[in-house]
Amino acid sequence: MQAMDMSVGHFGDGRLQKGGALLLGALVANPCSSIRRLAGSRAREVQFHRLLRNAGVTVEEMARVAGHRTGVLARGRDVAVIQDTTEVYVGSKRASEAGFGPIGKGGALRGVLAHVAIAVDDTGGLIGLVDEMVWTRQGGQPVTDRKRKFEDKESYRWLKACEVASERLAGARSITMVSDAESDIFPVFARCPEGLHLLVRSARTRSLSDGQRLADAAATLKKGGRIKRIIPAAPGRSERRAVLDVRYGELTLAPPHGTPDALIEPLTLTVLQVTELNAPQGVEPVNWTLITTHKITDLRRAEEILDLYRGRFLIEQLFRTLKTAGFDIENADINDPHAFITLTALAIIASVNILQLVKARDGDTGQILEDCFDPDDAPILRALSKKLEGKTDKQKNPHPLDQLAFASWVIARLGGWTGYYGKPGPKVMRQGLDKYFAIKCGSNLYGIV
Ligand SMILES: [Mn+2]
Predict the structure, then answer these.
(1) What is the DSSP string of 384-410?
(2) Which positions of the chain have pLDDT values less than 70?
(3) pLDDT at 144
(4) pLDDT of residue 142
Protein backbone atom coordinates (compact mmCIF):
# COMPACT_ATOMS: atom_id res chain seq x y z
CA MET A 1 0.00 0.00 0.00
CA GLN A 2 1.29 3.41 -0.88
CA ALA A 3 1.07 4.71 2.66
CA MET A 4 3.85 2.29 3.58
CA ASP A 5 6.35 3.88 1.27
CA MET A 6 4.82 7.29 0.87
CA SER A 7 6.03 10.39 2.54
CA VAL A 8 3.44 12.20 4.65
CA GLY A 9 5.44 15.42 4.53
CA HIS A 10 8.91 16.79 3.99
CA PHE A 11 9.11 18.85 7.19
CA GLY A 12 12.36 20.35 5.90
CA ASP A 13 14.38 17.40 7.21
CA GLY A 14 15.15 13.99 5.71
CA ARG A 15 15.00 12.15 9.05
CA LEU A 16 11.63 13.64 9.94
CA GLN A 17 10.28 12.74 6.51
CA LYS A 18 11.39 9.14 6.97
CA GLY A 19 10.05 8.97 10.53
CA GLY A 20 6.68 10.28 9.40
CA ALA A 21 6.38 7.61 6.71
CA LEU A 22 7.37 4.92 9.23
CA LEU A 23 4.80 6.04 11.78
CA LEU A 24 2.03 6.23 9.17
CA GLY A 25 2.98 2.75 7.99
CA ALA A 26 2.75 1.49 11.57
CA LEU A 27 -0.64 3.18 12.04
CA VAL A 28 -2.14 1.61 8.91
CA ALA A 29 -0.69 -1.81 9.67
CA ASN A 30 -1.63 -1.87 13.32
CA PRO A 31 -4.20 0.81 14.02
CA CYS A 32 -4.05 1.79 17.65
CA SER A 33 -3.05 4.86 19.55
CA SER A 34 -0.35 3.43 21.77
CA ILE A 35 3.02 4.76 20.66
CA ARG A 36 4.73 1.90 22.50
CA ARG A 37 2.77 -0.72 20.58
CA LEU A 38 3.19 1.12 17.29
CA ALA A 39 6.93 1.37 17.79
CA GLY A 40 7.69 -2.19 18.82
CA SER A 41 11.12 -1.27 20.16
CA ARG A 42 12.39 1.23 22.68
CA ALA A 43 14.59 3.03 20.12
CA ARG A 44 11.73 3.42 17.68
CA GLU A 45 9.42 4.57 20.48
CA VAL A 46 11.85 7.39 21.26
CA GLN A 47 12.03 8.24 17.55
CA PHE A 48 8.21 8.42 17.25
CA HIS A 49 7.87 10.60 20.35
CA ARG A 50 10.55 12.98 19.05
CA LEU A 51 8.84 13.15 15.70
CA LEU A 52 5.42 13.89 17.21
CA ARG A 53 6.86 16.62 19.46
CA ASN A 54 8.93 18.26 16.72
CA ALA A 55 7.54 21.73 15.99
CA GLY A 56 8.48 21.34 12.32
CA VAL A 57 6.13 18.38 11.89
CA THR A 58 2.91 20.19 11.04
CA VAL A 59 -0.62 19.17 10.10
CA GLU A 60 -0.51 21.73 7.25
CA GLU A 61 2.39 19.91 5.61
CA MET A 62 0.71 16.50 5.96
CA ALA A 63 -2.54 17.90 4.56
CA ARG A 64 -0.68 19.50 1.67
CA VAL A 65 1.06 16.27 0.65
CA ALA A 66 -2.06 14.09 0.97
CA GLY A 67 -4.22 16.73 -0.73
CA HIS A 68 -1.85 17.06 -3.66
CA ARG A 69 -2.01 13.31 -4.27
CA THR A 70 -5.80 13.38 -4.16
CA GLY A 71 -5.73 16.28 -6.62
CA VAL A 72 -3.78 14.17 -9.11
CA LEU A 73 -6.26 11.27 -8.77
CA ALA A 74 -9.25 13.62 -9.08
CA ARG A 75 -8.24 15.01 -12.47
CA GLY A 76 -11.10 14.98 -14.96
CA ARG A 77 -13.61 13.53 -12.48
CA ASP A 78 -16.81 14.92 -11.00
CA VAL A 79 -15.94 15.11 -7.33
CA ALA A 80 -17.91 15.63 -4.14
CA VAL A 81 -15.86 16.94 -1.25
CA ILE A 82 -17.41 16.08 2.10
CA GLN A 83 -16.26 18.21 5.00
CA ASP A 84 -17.08 17.95 8.70
CA THR A 85 -15.68 18.59 12.18
CA THR A 86 -15.28 16.09 14.99
CA GLU A 87 -14.24 16.55 18.60
CA VAL A 88 -11.61 14.24 20.04
CA TYR A 89 -11.88 13.87 23.80
CA VAL A 90 -8.63 13.69 25.76
CA GLY A 91 -9.60 14.19 29.43
CA SER A 92 -10.63 16.83 31.92
CA LYS A 93 -8.49 18.29 34.70
CA ARG A 94 -5.13 16.77 33.82
CA ALA A 95 -5.64 17.39 30.14
CA SER A 96 -6.43 20.99 30.95
CA GLU A 97 -3.17 21.35 32.89
CA ALA A 98 -1.29 19.82 29.96
CA GLY A 99 -2.64 22.60 27.73
CA PHE A 100 -5.67 21.03 26.01
CA GLY A 101 -8.49 23.49 25.39
CA PRO A 102 -12.24 22.93 25.89
CA ILE A 103 -14.46 20.88 23.59
CA GLY A 104 -18.20 20.33 23.65
CA LYS A 105 -20.63 22.32 25.73
CA GLY A 106 -20.00 23.38 29.31
CA GLY A 107 -16.23 23.64 29.07
CA ALA A 108 -15.35 20.75 31.43
CA LEU A 109 -14.14 18.41 28.70
CA ARG A 110 -10.77 18.89 27.06
CA GLY A 111 -9.43 17.75 23.73
CA VAL A 112 -8.77 18.67 20.14
CA LEU A 113 -10.98 19.40 17.14
CA ALA A 114 -10.41 17.94 13.71
CA HIS A 115 -11.88 19.37 10.53
CA VAL A 116 -11.58 16.97 7.61
CA ALA A 117 -12.40 17.17 3.89
CA ILE A 118 -12.44 14.00 1.74
CA ALA A 119 -12.99 13.61 -2.00
CA VAL A 120 -15.51 11.08 -3.35
CA ASP A 121 -16.02 10.24 -7.04
CA ASP A 122 -19.41 9.86 -8.75
CA THR A 123 -19.42 6.09 -8.18
CA GLY A 124 -19.09 6.58 -4.41
CA GLY A 125 -15.39 5.67 -4.37
CA LEU A 126 -13.25 7.45 -1.79
CA ILE A 127 -10.48 9.22 -3.74
CA GLY A 128 -8.60 10.53 -0.74
CA LEU A 129 -8.00 13.28 1.77
CA VAL A 130 -8.31 16.86 0.50
CA ASP A 131 -7.54 18.74 3.69
CA GLU A 132 -7.37 18.36 7.45
CA MET A 133 -7.07 20.86 10.26
CA VAL A 134 -6.47 19.76 13.84
CA TRP A 135 -6.33 22.24 16.71
CA THR A 136 -7.01 22.81 20.37
CA ARG A 137 -8.78 25.94 21.59
CA GLN A 138 -6.75 28.58 23.35
CA GLY A 139 -7.79 30.45 26.46
CA GLY A 140 -11.12 28.96 27.46
CA GLN A 141 -14.36 29.61 25.63
CA PRO A 142 -14.31 30.91 22.07
CA VAL A 143 -15.10 34.59 21.70
CA THR A 144 -18.48 35.39 20.19
CA ASP A 145 -17.82 38.86 18.91
CA ARG A 146 -19.93 39.38 15.79
CA LYS A 147 -17.63 42.15 14.63
CA ARG A 148 -14.61 39.88 14.50
CA LYS A 149 -13.27 39.21 11.03
CA PHE A 150 -14.63 35.95 9.60
CA GLU A 151 -11.06 34.72 8.99
CA ASP A 152 -10.41 34.88 12.74
CA LYS A 153 -13.45 32.83 13.69
CA GLU A 154 -13.42 29.08 14.15
CA SER A 155 -16.28 28.84 11.64
CA TYR A 156 -13.97 30.15 8.91
CA ARG A 157 -12.80 26.51 8.57
CA TRP A 158 -15.80 25.74 6.32
CA LEU A 159 -14.82 28.39 3.81
CA LYS A 160 -11.11 27.64 4.13
CA ALA A 161 -11.74 24.01 3.14
CA CYS A 162 -13.60 25.32 0.06
CA GLU A 163 -10.65 27.50 -0.89
CA VAL A 164 -8.17 24.68 -0.35
CA ALA A 165 -10.33 22.21 -2.33
CA SER A 166 -10.66 24.54 -5.32
CA GLU A 167 -6.89 24.95 -5.36
CA ARG A 168 -5.84 21.33 -4.80
CA LEU A 169 -8.53 19.80 -7.02
CA ALA A 170 -8.18 22.38 -9.78
CA GLY A 171 -8.01 19.59 -12.41
CA ALA A 172 -11.35 18.02 -11.43
CA ARG A 173 -14.24 18.39 -13.87
CA SER A 174 -16.51 19.66 -11.12
CA ILE A 175 -16.35 20.03 -7.35
CA THR A 176 -19.34 20.04 -4.98
CA MET A 177 -18.66 20.77 -1.32
CA VAL A 178 -21.07 18.81 0.92
CA SER A 179 -21.56 19.67 4.58
CA ASP A 180 -24.10 19.49 7.41
CA ALA A 181 -26.16 22.17 9.11
CA GLU A 182 -23.23 23.47 11.12
CA SER A 183 -21.85 25.01 7.94
CA ASP A 184 -24.99 26.97 7.10
CA ILE A 185 -23.14 30.29 7.31
CA PHE A 186 -23.93 33.21 5.01
CA PRO A 187 -20.31 34.24 4.22
CA VAL A 188 -19.53 30.66 3.13
CA PHE A 189 -22.08 31.08 0.33
CA ALA A 190 -21.19 34.71 -0.35
CA ARG A 191 -17.44 34.06 -0.63
CA CYS A 192 -17.43 30.56 -2.12
CA PRO A 193 -14.65 30.35 -4.75
CA GLU A 194 -15.59 30.70 -8.44
CA GLY A 195 -16.58 27.43 -10.09
CA LEU A 196 -17.08 25.54 -6.82
CA HIS A 197 -20.53 24.21 -5.91
CA LEU A 198 -22.01 24.05 -2.42
CA LEU A 199 -24.55 21.68 -0.90
CA VAL A 200 -25.42 22.45 2.70
CA ARG A 201 -28.20 21.48 5.04
CA SER A 202 -30.02 24.51 6.35
CA ALA A 203 -29.93 25.07 10.09
CA ARG A 204 -31.44 28.46 10.56
CA THR A 205 -34.70 30.23 10.21
CA ARG A 206 -33.27 32.50 7.56
CA SER A 207 -35.11 35.45 6.11
CA LEU A 208 -35.64 35.73 2.38
CA SER A 209 -35.28 39.00 0.49
CA ASP A 210 -39.09 39.23 0.19
CA GLY A 211 -39.48 39.06 3.98
CA GLN A 212 -40.70 35.44 4.09
CA ARG A 213 -39.12 32.81 6.31
CA LEU A 214 -37.03 30.18 4.52
CA ALA A 215 -38.82 27.29 6.27
CA ASP A 216 -42.28 28.58 5.22
CA ALA A 217 -41.21 29.20 1.63
CA ALA A 218 -39.48 25.80 1.39
CA ALA A 219 -42.66 24.01 2.49
CA THR A 220 -44.63 25.57 -0.34
CA LEU A 221 -42.09 25.08 -3.16
CA LYS A 222 -43.14 23.37 -6.36
CA LYS A 223 -43.88 19.67 -5.85
CA GLY A 224 -41.26 17.48 -7.50
CA GLY A 225 -42.68 14.08 -6.64
CA ARG A 226 -42.31 11.16 -4.28
CA ILE A 227 -39.27 8.91 -3.97
CA LYS A 228 -38.11 6.08 -1.70
CA ARG A 229 -34.81 5.85 0.12
CA ILE A 230 -33.27 3.58 2.74
CA ILE A 231 -32.52 5.52 5.91
CA PRO A 232 -29.60 3.73 7.59
CA ALA A 233 -29.77 2.51 11.17
CA ALA A 234 -28.45 4.80 13.89
CA PRO A 235 -28.20 4.45 17.66
CA GLY A 236 -31.76 3.93 18.91
CA ARG A 237 -33.40 3.30 15.54
CA SER A 238 -33.31 0.57 12.93
CA GLU A 239 -32.92 0.88 9.17
CA ARG A 240 -36.11 1.84 7.36
CA ARG A 241 -37.44 2.44 3.88
CA ALA A 242 -38.78 5.97 3.82
CA VAL A 243 -41.22 7.58 1.41
CA LEU A 244 -40.01 11.11 0.78
CA ASP A 245 -41.88 14.09 -0.56
CA VAL A 246 -39.54 16.22 -2.68
CA ARG A 247 -39.93 19.92 -3.50
CA TYR A 248 -37.46 22.31 -5.08
CA GLY A 249 -37.05 25.79 -6.46
CA GLU A 250 -34.98 28.96 -6.35
CA LEU A 251 -35.18 31.31 -3.37
CA THR A 252 -33.31 34.51 -2.55
CA LEU A 253 -31.67 34.67 0.88
CA ALA A 254 -31.33 38.02 2.61
CA PRO A 255 -27.98 38.70 4.29
CA PRO A 256 -28.33 38.32 8.07
CA HIS A 257 -27.89 41.30 10.39
CA GLY A 258 -24.26 42.13 11.00
CA THR A 259 -23.06 40.91 7.60
CA PRO A 260 -20.06 43.02 6.51
CA ASP A 261 -20.84 45.64 3.84
CA ALA A 262 -18.84 43.81 1.19
CA LEU A 263 -21.17 40.80 1.38
CA ILE A 264 -24.64 42.28 1.73
CA GLU A 265 -25.88 41.26 -1.72
CA PRO A 266 -28.83 38.86 -1.45
CA LEU A 267 -28.08 35.35 -2.76
CA THR A 268 -30.33 33.37 -5.10
CA LEU A 269 -29.84 29.65 -4.50
CA THR A 270 -31.66 26.38 -5.09
CA VAL A 271 -33.58 24.98 -2.13
CA LEU A 272 -34.44 21.28 -1.97
CA GLN A 273 -37.04 20.35 0.62
CA VAL A 274 -37.26 16.64 1.53
CA THR A 275 -39.99 15.54 3.92
CA GLU A 276 -40.74 11.99 5.05
CA LEU A 277 -44.35 10.80 4.78
CA ASN A 278 -45.88 8.33 7.26
CA ALA A 279 -42.76 7.90 9.40
CA PRO A 280 -43.10 5.07 11.95
CA GLN A 281 -44.23 6.06 15.44
CA GLY A 282 -41.52 7.29 17.77
CA VAL A 283 -39.12 8.00 14.91
CA GLU A 284 -38.20 11.54 13.98
CA PRO A 285 -39.23 11.93 10.34
CA VAL A 286 -36.74 13.12 7.73
CA ASN A 287 -37.18 16.85 7.26
CA TRP A 288 -34.27 18.27 5.36
CA THR A 289 -33.95 21.69 3.82
CA LEU A 290 -30.92 21.57 1.56
CA ILE A 291 -29.41 24.68 0.00
CA THR A 292 -27.25 24.37 -3.10
CA THR A 293 -25.61 26.41 -5.84
CA HIS A 294 -26.58 23.65 -8.32
CA LYS A 295 -29.64 24.16 -10.50
CA ILE A 296 -32.44 21.60 -10.20
CA THR A 297 -34.72 21.27 -13.20
CA ASP A 298 -36.36 17.88 -12.72
CA LEU A 299 -36.99 15.16 -10.16
CA ARG A 300 -34.01 13.11 -11.35
CA ARG A 301 -31.63 15.96 -10.68
CA ALA A 302 -33.28 16.51 -7.29
CA GLU A 303 -32.61 12.86 -6.45
CA GLU A 304 -28.96 13.17 -7.51
CA ILE A 305 -28.51 16.18 -5.26
CA LEU A 306 -30.23 14.40 -2.36
CA ASP A 307 -27.96 11.37 -2.84
CA LEU A 308 -24.90 13.60 -2.90
CA TYR A 309 -25.97 14.85 0.51
CA ARG A 310 -26.65 11.34 1.75
CA GLY A 311 -23.06 10.51 0.75
CA ARG A 312 -22.03 12.65 3.71
CA PHE A 313 -22.51 9.50 5.80
CA LEU A 314 -19.02 8.45 4.72
CA ILE A 315 -17.36 11.09 6.85
CA GLU A 316 -19.28 9.87 9.89
CA GLN A 317 -17.82 6.44 9.17
CA LEU A 318 -14.36 7.97 8.93
CA PHE A 319 -14.74 9.60 12.34
CA ARG A 320 -16.01 6.31 13.79
CA THR A 321 -12.94 4.53 12.43
CA LEU A 322 -10.74 7.19 13.98
CA LYS A 323 -12.37 6.96 17.39
CA THR A 324 -13.65 3.48 18.04
CA ALA A 325 -13.75 1.03 15.15
CA GLY A 326 -10.09 1.63 14.39
CA PHE A 327 -7.62 3.75 16.21
CA ASP A 328 -9.21 4.49 19.54
CA ILE A 329 -7.47 7.84 19.23
CA GLU A 330 -9.16 9.13 22.37
CA ASN A 331 -7.04 6.74 24.44
CA ALA A 332 -3.64 7.67 23.03
CA ASP A 333 -0.79 7.57 25.56
CA ILE A 334 0.29 11.16 24.82
CA ASN A 335 -0.19 14.23 26.98
CA ASP A 336 1.51 16.90 24.89
CA PRO A 337 -1.03 18.85 22.77
CA HIS A 338 1.24 19.33 19.75
CA ALA A 339 2.19 15.64 19.72
CA PHE A 340 -1.45 14.60 20.12
CA ILE A 341 -2.48 16.87 17.25
CA THR A 342 0.20 15.37 15.01
CA LEU A 343 -0.82 11.81 15.89
CA THR A 344 -4.49 12.63 15.23
CA ALA A 345 -3.61 14.06 11.80
CA LEU A 346 -1.65 10.91 10.93
CA ALA A 347 -4.42 8.62 12.22
CA ILE A 348 -6.93 10.47 10.00
CA ILE A 349 -4.76 9.76 6.95
CA ALA A 350 -4.51 6.09 7.94
CA SER A 351 -8.31 5.93 8.53
CA VAL A 352 -8.88 7.20 5.00
CA ASN A 353 -6.79 4.29 3.67
CA ILE A 354 -8.85 1.74 5.61
CA LEU A 355 -12.14 3.27 4.56
CA GLN A 356 -11.07 3.20 0.90
CA LEU A 357 -10.86 -0.57 1.15
CA VAL A 358 -14.20 -0.82 2.94
CA LYS A 359 -15.87 1.31 0.25
CA ALA A 360 -14.26 -0.63 -2.59
CA ARG A 361 -15.20 -4.07 -1.27
CA ASP A 362 -18.44 -4.49 -3.26
CA GLY A 363 -16.75 -3.60 -6.52
CA ASP A 364 -19.33 -0.97 -7.40
CA THR A 365 -17.14 2.10 -6.88
CA GLY A 366 -15.05 1.62 -10.02
CA GLN A 367 -11.77 2.46 -8.27
CA ILE A 368 -8.63 0.92 -9.68
CA LEU A 369 -5.93 -0.88 -7.71
CA GLU A 370 -3.47 1.98 -8.25
CA ASP A 371 -5.73 4.39 -6.35
CA CYS A 372 -4.42 2.77 -3.16
CA PHE A 373 -1.67 0.31 -3.94
CA ASP A 374 1.79 0.35 -5.49
CA PRO A 375 2.71 -1.65 -8.60
CA ASP A 376 4.77 -4.05 -6.47
CA ASP A 377 1.65 -4.96 -4.46
CA ALA A 378 -0.13 -6.43 -7.47
CA PRO A 379 1.76 -9.76 -7.71
CA ILE A 380 1.51 -10.30 -3.93
CA LEU A 381 -2.24 -9.64 -3.94
CA ARG A 382 -2.70 -11.97 -6.91
CA ALA A 383 -0.78 -14.79 -5.21
CA LEU A 384 -2.69 -14.30 -1.95
CA SER A 385 -6.03 -14.26 -3.72
CA LYS A 386 -5.31 -17.66 -5.27
CA LYS A 387 -4.31 -19.08 -1.92
CA LEU A 388 -7.37 -17.71 -0.14
CA GLU A 389 -10.01 -18.74 -2.66
CA GLY A 390 -12.19 -21.64 -1.54
CA LYS A 391 -14.06 -24.27 -3.53
CA THR A 392 -17.49 -22.65 -3.57
CA ASP A 393 -18.42 -19.71 -5.79
CA LYS A 394 -18.98 -17.54 -2.75
CA GLN A 395 -15.37 -18.09 -1.76
CA LYS A 396 -13.90 -16.94 -5.09
CA ASN A 397 -12.63 -13.42 -5.62
CA PRO A 398 -15.24 -12.07 -8.05
CA HIS A 399 -13.38 -8.88 -9.01
CA PRO A 400 -11.02 -8.12 -11.92
CA LEU A 401 -7.32 -7.99 -11.05
CA ASP A 402 -6.83 -4.31 -11.73
CA GLN A 403 -9.71 -3.14 -9.51
CA LEU A 404 -9.36 -1.89 -5.94
CA ALA A 405 -12.22 -4.27 -5.05
CA PHE A 406 -9.88 -7.18 -5.86
CA ALA A 407 -7.49 -6.01 -3.12
CA SER A 408 -10.39 -5.34 -0.75
CA TRP A 409 -11.52 -8.95 -1.12
CA VAL A 410 -8.01 -10.21 -0.28
CA ILE A 411 -7.58 -7.86 2.69
CA ALA A 412 -11.03 -8.80 4.05
CA ARG A 413 -10.28 -12.55 3.78
CA LEU A 414 -6.95 -11.99 5.55
CA GLY A 415 -8.86 -10.10 8.23
CA GLY A 416 -10.98 -13.15 8.98
CA TRP A 417 -14.02 -12.61 6.74
CA THR A 418 -15.25 -15.99 5.47
CA GLY A 419 -17.01 -14.76 2.35
CA TYR A 420 -20.29 -16.21 3.58
CA TYR A 421 -21.80 -13.90 6.18
CA GLY A 422 -22.28 -10.15 6.20
CA LYS A 423 -19.85 -7.64 4.79
CA PRO A 424 -16.42 -6.77 6.16
CA GLY A 425 -16.21 -3.43 7.99
CA PRO A 426 -13.32 -1.24 9.17
CA LYS A 427 -12.30 -3.64 11.95
CA VAL A 428 -11.88 -6.62 9.66
CA MET A 429 -10.09 -4.43 7.13
CA ARG A 430 -7.53 -3.16 9.59
CA GLN A 431 -6.84 -6.68 10.86
CA GLY A 432 -6.46 -7.76 7.24
CA LEU A 433 -4.07 -4.91 6.51
CA ASP A 434 -2.03 -5.83 9.56
CA LYS A 435 -1.56 -9.35 8.17
CA TYR A 436 -1.03 -8.05 4.66
CA PHE A 437 1.90 -5.85 5.68
CA ALA A 438 3.47 -8.69 7.63
CA ILE A 439 3.17 -10.86 4.53
CA LYS A 440 4.46 -8.12 2.24
CA CYS A 441 7.51 -7.62 4.45
CA GLY A 442 8.18 -11.36 4.44
CA SER A 443 7.03 -12.13 0.92
CA ASN A 444 10.54 -12.33 -0.46
CA LEU A 445 11.62 -14.62 2.37
CA TYR A 446 8.75 -17.05 1.95
CA GLY A 447 8.84 -17.00 -1.82
CA ILE A 448 5.19 -16.02 -2.28
CA VAL A 449 6.15 -14.02 -5.35
MN1 LIG B 1 -20.92 18.23 11.75
Answers:
(1) HHHHH--SSGGGS--S-TTBHHHHHHH
(2) 1-7, 29-31, 139-147, 325-326, 441-449
(3) 58
(4) 54
Angle of the 313-320 helix axis to the 337-360 helix axis, nearest 10: 120
The Å distance, Cα 221 to ligand 1 centre, comes to: 27
> In DSSP terms, which residues pair with 83 in a beta bridge?
117
Please give the DSSP secondary-structure letter assigned to residue 339: H
Ligand 1 centroid to Cα of residue 392, in Å, is 44
pLDDT one-digit tens code per residue, 206-222: 999 999 999 999 999 99
Rounded to the nearest angstrom, the distance between the alpha carbon of 406 and the centre of ligand 1 is 33
Q: How far is the CA of 446 from the centre of ligand 1 (A)?
A: 47
Ligand 1 centroid to residue 87 C-alpha, Å: 10
Over 14-44, what HEC string results?
A: HHHHHHHHHHHHHHHHCCCCCHHHHHCCHHH
Residue 44: per-residue pLDDT: 86
| Distance, CA of 412 to CA of 432 (rounded, Å) | 6
The answer to whether 131 and 68 have CB atoms below 8 angstroms apart is no
pLDDT in the model for residue 342: 92
Strands 126-135 and 287-292: unpaired
> What does each C-alpha distance from 220 to 158, 204, 302, 398 come to in angstroms?
30, 17, 16, 48
For 258: left if phi > 0, alpha if psi spans -120 to 50, otherwise beta; the answer is: left
pLDDT (0 to 100) of residue 325: 67
Closest CA to 128 of 2, 307, 313: 2
Ligand 1 (ion): which residues have CB within 5 A? 84, 180, 182
Beta carbons within 8 Å of 263's beta carbon, 6+ residues apart? 186, 187, 190, 191, 255
Distance between CA atoms of residues 399 and 274, nearest Å: 37
3-state secondary structure of 103: coil
Query: Ligand 1 centroid to 180 CA: how many Å?
Result: 6
Helix (H, G, I), strand (E, B) or coil at 437: helix
Half-sphere exposure of 75 (CA within 13 A, CB side): 5
